Each structure stands twice: as structure tokens, then as C-alpha cells.
Amino acid sequence: MRIHRRHFLKYCIGSAAVLGLPLTVLGKLEQALADATVPLPKVLWLNGANCTGCTVSLANLFSASGPTDIADLLVNTIDLAFHPNLMGAAGDLAVKQLKDTAQGNFILVVEGGIPTAFNGHSCLLWSENGKDVTAMEAVQMLAPKADVVLSVGTCASYGGIPAGDPNPTGIVSVSQLTGLPTINIPGCPTHPDWIVWTIASLLAGSVPPLDAQRRPKALFGKKLHEICPRKGREEADIFGIPGECLKEVGCKGPETFADCPARKWNSGTNWCVGAGAICAGCTEQGFPDRFSPFYKVAYSYKEFTKPADNPQQPTQGSLTFTRAEWRSDTKVLIAEGKGKAGQIVTISRSDSGLQLGAVSVNTAGTWRFQQTAPQFIPSLMAASGGEITLRTVIRK
Amino acid sequence: MKTITVMDPVTRIEGHMKVEITVDTSGGIQQIVDARCTGTLFRGFETLLNNRSPLDAPLITQRICGVCPISHGQAAVLALENVSNWLPPTNARLLRNLTLGADFLQSHILHFYLLAALDYTAGPASQPWTPAWQIDLRPGLETVAANLPKAIAARRQAHEMGAVFSGKMPNSNSYIPGGFTTIPTAKDIDAYRRHLAALTAFIETTYLPDVKKVGEVYKDYFQIGAGCRNLMAFGAFEMDDSGSTRLFARGSIENGGVDVQPTLATTEITESVQFSWYANQTNNLPPTAGATVPEYPKGEAYSWIKAPRLRGKPFEAGPLARMWINRTYQGGISVMDRHVARALEAVKIAKAMSGWLDGLTPEKNAYDNTYDQYSGVGIGLSEAPRGALGHWVKIVGNKIAHYQVITPTCWNASPRDDQNVPGPMEQALIGTPIKDPNQPIEALRVIHSYDPCLSCAVHIMRPDKKPVVVFPGRQ
Fold first, then answer.
1. pTM above 0.90?
2. Cβ contact, residue pair A278, B173, below 8 Å
3. How far from A173 is each of A140, A161, A167, A288, CA to CA, in Å?
């Protein structure tokens, strides 16, 4: 894995437009990286109440303009002295590594919020002389010594999902805990480019301009909806319609600052709205409670207790239900079963009792119901004729 | 002389974990005679889901784990649809399988090369891979270590493949009850197919051979770390629209046998709290009734993780369990068998994915707007890369009234139960020979073979004070 650190610079130049790095920053970065005798900046990465999603997202780093990926970043750009998910050392050796590094200059990265309930003991990072060290203690100890503190992801930046009501473990953000100004790189998860962009700016010797939520303005300066290709399109009221604006089903693009529509995710493959899904507002302070419930989609809600553990088993009696199928290609609803010859079978929606029609059982003791373009397609269909039997409609 | 070694942090896992082992000489061999596994993070996801809209569950539960979010999205939509007795359209079933499959492949590759391989061969000579314990790293695996950059690229490509349909990875907002938001285009299907071909080649020509190489150099690990020898799987990857047949079958086996019990009733699952800090009146309740009544301090309790049991016994979940129950791999039960089964499983999934891709109807909607959300109780059973995953939900008045998650790591890393039977990973650690108690790499190999994900273990919590517990036999 001998990749020259200058490849990182090549990556930054090649991606300058996408990353939004100004030329002045690139020039300083070139000076900083060209001198191989200058030691790489040391980074300590602590996991608070996290899910590891931001680390996994960072591992998705890739640039088409150079051989730069996560390995290049780790080997040539930063000196990642402590990262619990990646490091070779375990136990005391890992702790020693962290302590030694903290004697000098270092960048502190925190992934995950900091729990304060139970005096911080719902999140323990290591043991020392038989005593547990909490995330709260570790961040309070290391943050004031660090050259700069990066809050990676929405949890470290603002609390995030685990801090949602009723915030069971009393989670606070890194800056709330320490009172120190952090650089916030939110997102659930955050984007690998956003992390690299921020580190590149810092290596070039400048703290990038930040917005009121202390996010780099260059990355979080515009509302997602304003740069969304679906803006101004017809507004969808259900999912599954190509290309329509999803504002009315719950998309948070109009309230969310992020450059996802332009940058996309997973090396430019796709993004949430591109897949017909809502933007959940994950880069915003107050996520999730500011946006929950996330969906405005109108589905009907039914107070209904399902009849048995397995409704596909017919109830006791002669009437059975062997097939219930919706063929969306031909728009035909088919139901079949058995019963007593001459018995009248009514087909209906199981919850509301809305009827679709009725058939009679033939002399062979079977019945068949078929309807083209029915007025509705039940999820659970009922066949009744003195007794009731239910079957889930299979959609084909 | 007994030595108690505390490994904290246990690194190269997802999440936070502490393992305390007691090493002593028995029968002339220095070995682990006692083991206690403790997760060290609790976030309370089940509590924060209460009173939210049912539709929020897939989005929120995916944040339980950043390595296997898709499994949580899958289990959540299955649980909600189970309440309504609803089955998704064919395209939704296939898109969910393809997204879940992509996440399995990235997780398996990540686990072997980034989390486990360093227990067997030295990593790159720079931080964060140095320093590391210098003990029992046998020669002959340099080529495996050299494949790390290739593996990093393959793992990333698996996520790019998943994002073709899921929008982004990790975490996809495309999982909603009623279907999947994506409409697959012919172009998307082609893009996905190209990624899959490259990944299948990597898995067959690099990953699987590398695992076999490690198995040859560390043959002794086919005899180490058997654990409880009970295996269970909820099954995943629905093969038909009724959801009744799956690529990985549901079932269990006991005591390393070959006879698979094909039925696995969730009513047979209970959670013991004898050695967990919860009131004993909640002992052995099923997940639908599982009340969480904290009680600390409490007798011999040493963990905030509950101990899930099937028919009253501990069970191992994961790729080895799935492959064994499917009768695809019944080599043995050990540290190395877990790695081999995981790699063989990656091959099996990749091949099945090609079929699912063929089954997609291009330009066809995968979301059905006739979906109705009912009140009631639902169960969503699926698999995470590291084992069986279950979501239990109760909906009242269009709100979540109760949510319970049992993750694979709760099964594998569970504490002792009310019969004083240790959890699977604890059992696997006990009896493992240890050369140097200060560098217990053998214990790390046992732990990593389960691919534990402590982010996943939603029940886990530690108290505000370190417990003073005198373990039996401790000096």
C-alpha cells in the first residue's frame, strides 16, 4: 500500500469543483503536503453513542480523478492513531496509543453523541486501572487539548436519532458537553466527501467559513429543494411515480441544507430522492424530532385485530379459500376455493366488509371468482357464506 | 496462578465491548476458565420508537447499526406489513432482496479483511494498523494482507451496487411498508449487473481462497471455539411472493446435530434476566410481553444485555447457523468454520442475486398505494449479516405502542441465563488455550469469529457504578 501522499493533492485538484475547494486553499495544501518531512497530522477518533455508520460511509470514499480511497487517506494524509473499529491494537495497547498521541498536537474526531444519563455510564470507551472511562469523561479530557474538534455525523453534531424524544440516555452534542466550538459535519450518515473536504481545508491551514449550525457553508450553503432536479415538477401524493416532487409525501428538502442533489452518494451513484424516497432532513439540527413523523403519505389506517395467528388457514367448516391473487398486468382479481354445492359465497374486503361480488359453489364443490379492474384490491380478502374464511391477496 | 485479563476496548468490532477472561492452567494447558462478555453502549431505541408513526420505524431502526442498517429496515417493514397481513409486490420483494444482499456482501468483506484478518497476519505498517500484538502471527499469509486495498475497493463497490436501487448506503429511505420507493429502470438493472459480476469475481477468486488459506495455516482453529453448538436462523431473502420460502431457511438444530427442526415458533423465545440488571419478575418473558424493569444492583447480575433463549437454551446465530440449517455447509462448529461458512455464504448470495435481478420487471412500480396500516401486533423476522434479527411491533391508534428488537449479537454475546448457562460466545471462549494472558490474541480470534456488532445490541447498558462482583473461583 505505497501510495504517495501527493495523490491526495491530485484528488483535491481533480475534484476541486465537486469539493468546492478554492484555489487559495489548494495552493496552501500543496505546500503542506509537498514537504515529506512534515509529519502527518495525528487524528484520534472516538466513538460516542454511535452506530458506526459514519465510519462505514467514510470507507465509501472514492475519487475517479486519482487512486484516492480510504486507504490512501489513512496512509498518506492523516495519521489515525486511534480508531476502535479499524485499529490493530486492542485493550491496554490501544489505550496507551491514545494517551501517547494526546501528549502532542492532534485533531479530535467524535462520531456519536455523548450520553449523560447514568453519569455517562451507558457509553464506556475503555478501562484504566480497573476503572471504566465513559465517553463523557474521554471527550471532556481530550477536547480541550485538541487543535480542532470535528463532530462527524448528526449525532456528534447535534445529538441525532438516539437523542430523539424522550432521549433515553440524555445524549448531548460534543459542543453542548464541552462548551467548545466544534466543526460540525452532519448527516446520517455523513458524506465521505464532506469529511475529506473539511480535513483538506484544515490541512491547508484554515478553518472554513461556518454557518449558524457550525457546518461548512461551502457544503451546506443551499437548501436541498432549491437545487433538486424535481423542483417545480408535479407534486406526488403517493410513492412510485417517476420524477415527481415528493414535498407532499413528506420530503424535507425545502428545510434541509445539503448538496446531495449535486454530489449524490456512493461515488455519484444515487441519492435518496433519486431513488424515489424522501429526504429525511438528516443534516439538520433537531433531526429526527423536528421532522417526525417523516411521512405525510395518505394511507388508510384501520382499527382491526387480525383474526388468527395464521389467517391463511381456513376457519373450521366446509368453505375454504385456496387462492387469492391480483394480476396487475391484466388487472384481474382472482379468488378460488371449495364449499358445499349451491352455497353462495360473497367476496369482500375483510376489514370494512365492502363487497366485490358473489358466486355460487358448483356441483364439483369448488367456486371461482374473477373480476377485471375491480374498484379496489383488498389486502386481506374475505369469502363468506354462513361462515367466513380469509386469505391474503398475492400481488403478481 | 490465575490471571484475570480485561480486554477493553475490544477493537475491530462494530460498537463497544468489554470482555473479561480468567486464565488458568488446567490439565497442563494454560486456557480460559471463565469469560464474561459485556457490551458497553445503550441508546434505548425501543423507548424512543414509542408513540411515533408506524411509518417512521424503518427509517429510525436502521440507525441501530451502520453496518447492517438494511437488515433493520427489512425487519421493520416486514413487521409492519405482518400487522396488516400484507404481502409486497414482486418488484418490491426483489429490490429489498437485492439491497439486503448488497449489504451482506459489503459486511462479509469488511468483516474478514478489516476486522478479522489482523488476528492472523500483520496489517500495513502504518497507523491505525500499528501497533498490534506481536504474537502467534504465522507466516504464509502475506498475500492475504496484500489483498486489503482490493478488498476495500470491493466492499465500497458492494455499497455502490446497493445504492443503485436504495438511493444511498448505508441507510436507505426506500424501505417503506407497502413496497419500495424505487422504480427499477433497464439502465439501473444493467449498472447493478456490472457491479455484481465484478463482486462475484472478487468473492470467488480472492475472498474465498483467502479464507481457505487462513484455514490451512491455522488448522487448529477448526478445533477451537465451538460454543453452545445450538444453531438457529430466522431465515431471509424471500423467494416467492407469499414469503414462505426463503434462500436461507428458518429453523434450528441442537447440540451440533444434522437434523434440522424446520419450525421455529417465536413463542418459544424468552429472555432471561437472571444475570442482567432487570427485575426477576420479568424473567423468561417472550419479546411480545418483554417488559424492561431495571433493578440495580442485583445479586450476581453483570450485564444490561438480556439473555435470549430458544426453548430455554442459548443459540448461536450467524452465517454458520444459516448454512448449517440449509445443509449447505455442515463441516464443523468452530472459529474457522464460521469464517469458511461466511465466505461460502457470500458466494451463495451473489449467485442468488443474479436470479433476483433477472426477475425484476423494468419500469414497474414497486410500491402499492393500496397498502393499509392496521392496528395490532406484528413480527418481522429476517437476518443480519451476523445472524437472526427480529422486530416485534404493536400498533394502537396509528402509533407504535410497543417495539422490541432482538439482534443477533444479543443471542451470541448474551450473559448467563437463570440456569447459569453462559451465552454462546462465553462458552466458546472457555477452554480456549492462551499463550500469553497479556496478549490474548486467541480470545480475540474467538470473539471476532462471531462478527459481533455491539451497536446492534439494543438492550445493552452499563450501570452508573462499576459493580463489585466476586466471581466464583476468582482470587
1. no
2. yes
3. 12, 12, 12, 14
